[in-house]
């Protein structure tokens, strides 16, 4: 995947955002 950004939110989940289609995943 291109341009994947991972970060932690306030609830300590991992947010993964991909530039393709603007999809994001919360795991």
Structural class call reads: mainly beta
SSE topology string: EEE
Helix content: under 10%
**What is the overall pLDDT average?**
63
Number of strand elements? 3
Integer count of domains? 1
Distance between the termini: 17 Å
Q: Low-confidence stretches at least 5 residues in length (pLDDT < 50)? A: none
Structural shape: elongated
Please report the number of helical segments: 0
| Spatial order of strands in the largest sheet | 1-2-3
Radius of gyration: 9 Å
* β-sheet strand percentage: over 45%
Largest sheet: 3 strands, antiparallel
Overview of this protein structure:
The protein is mainly beta. The chain has one domain. The chain is 0% helix and 48% strand. The protein contains no helices and 3 strands. It has strands spanning 4-8, 14-18, 24-26. It is elongated, with a radius of gyration of 9 Å. The protein starts with a strand and ends with a strand. The mean pLDDT is 63.
Defining traits:
about 25 residues, mainly beta, 3 strands, elongated, DUF898 domain-containing protein
């Amino acid at each position: 995947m291109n341009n994947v950004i991972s970060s932690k939110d306030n609830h300590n989940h991992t947010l993964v955002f991909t530039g393709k289609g603007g999809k994001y995943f919360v795991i």
